[in-house]
Design goal:
CATH superfamily of the largest domain: Hypothetical protein VC1899 like domain (Restriction endonuclease-like)
Number of strands: 15
Distance between the termini: 23 Å
CATH topology of the largest domain: Rossmann fold
Largest sheet: 6 strands, mixed
Strand order of the largest sheet: 3-2-1-4-5-6
Helix content: 40-55%
Length: 377
């Protein structure tokens, strides 16, 4: 089985190239775009420079960059194939180098590189505006890494040999929290250092105690108003380092995002009306479906049909060869469940009922259930 290696991309390739070559054209071009955010047009304009850097790097493997050196050493150390996902900052230089690295390893038998600028150039991940980094860039980074891992980090490692120093501590923290190996190249010696898995305990009770408030902080809330209404909550979360604020907006800190991400990898968060919550206690098969299948978006989508009759139009999860049905909709990445049935005929009869999503949202409360995956079921 291949090891998934999350690899941050820095500028060491450019640095090493300029140490070996006096290239004023490249220097002036990069200086011009030094603080410009990633955009496809500019990267295309730099195609000739990209080709020049690619040719030089190809001739100087494995020492052309920290990423190249470390990936080859990790592959040799593990002695198995690597699936490498490159993570670029929201900058011209980092995205340019990520594209070069992908091309360099294009024909490599043991190291497969994945890099899609649309998903792997992380919006807001930059080192010039701290508030944007913390409120936008780091949450986007955490989400992208979790998407790559699919929520399961057993076969995932972090390679922090490249990348900006201001971002690397957060990657290391994410590795610790998710019980992953971490690799980096030690300074100029080019010796591979491995930090073995060292799991960090998550305070599950804290997240369950303040689940509603923590979810609201993900999107950012008015700090003054939130503190007025939830004084004890925000005091405790701030003391734990889970909340930060800027310009009267409170939001989860990078640590809070990383820890909460770990919590949601094990727990499915959804919204239900009081009626559905009462029925959940009676319908054990629905409870089992929620914890083993429905929480998985891919499974949920594959078993969902749009049902219409009269004025009714509903998204219905049909579990298959059984009478269980779940009526739900999704809004802003939140799942709202407004009807559950263990009787197929009763479920069919409800299709004609009109749905008022705003009414459901107004009556819904946040709930969670522990996910059960293959090893649990």
């Amino acid at each position: 089985m291949a090891e998934i290696v999350i690899t941050t991309v820095g500028c060491s390739l450019i640095t090493k190239y300029l140490e070996a070559n006096e290239d004023r054209i490249l220097q002036s071009k990069l200086k011009l775009y030094a603080k410009e955010r990633y955009n496809e047009r500019t990267v295309n304009d730099l195609k000739s420079l990209k080709n020049k850097l690619f040719s030089w790097a190809k001739d100087n493997i494995p020492n052309a960059s920290a990423e190249i050196t470390s990936l080859q050493k990790i592959q040799q150390f593990l002695n198995r194939p690597l699936e490498v996902y490159l993570i670029s900052t929201d900058s011209i230089e980092s995205s340019l180098i990520a594209g070069i690295l992908k091309d360099i390893f294009h024909d490599h038998d043991e190291i497969k590189i994945y890099f899609n600028p649309q998903t792997d150039v992380i919006k807001g991940l930059q080192v010039y505006i701290m508030n944007e980094l913390r409120s936008r860039g780091l949450p986007n980074l955490i989400k992208r890494i979790n998407d790559i891992a699919g929520g399961f980090y057993k076969n995932v490692a972090f390679n922090i040999s490249g990348g900006y120093k201001g971002i690397i501590p957060y990657l290391a923290l994410m590795g610790f929290v998710n019980n992953c190996d971490i690799y980096y190249i030690f300074e100029e010696s080019e010796e591979l250092i491995r930090i073995p898995r060292a799991p960090v305990a998550i305070d599950v009770e804290l997240f369950e105690k303040y689940l509603r408030e923590i979810v609201s902080l993900q999107d950012g809330v008015s700090y003054g108003q939130f503190k007025k209404e939830n004084y004890q909550v925000i005091e405790e979360l701030e003391q734990r380092g889970l909340v930060e604020s800027a310009d009267d907006i409170a939001y989860l800190s990078p640590l809070g995002n990383i820890l909460f991400n770990s919590y949601t990898n094990e727990h499915f968060i959804f919204y239900v009306t009081d009626e559905v919550e009462r029925e959940r206690g009676k319908q054990k098969e629905i409870e089992r479906i929620l914890s083993t299948k429905f929480w998985d978006k891919q499974q949920r989508d594959s078993k969902t049909e749009i049902k219409t009759q009269g004025r009714g139009k509903h998204r219905v999860y049909d579990d298959g060869n059984n009478p269980n049905r779940i009526y739900y909709f999704e809004r802003d990445d939140k799942v709202y469940i407004y009807k559950i049935f263990e009787n197929e005929e009763t479920a069919k009869a409800y299709i004609a009922e009109p749905l008022n999503e705003e009414n459901v949202i107004g009556k819904s409360q946040i709930q969670k259930i522990r996910k059960q995956v293959r090893s649990d079921v």
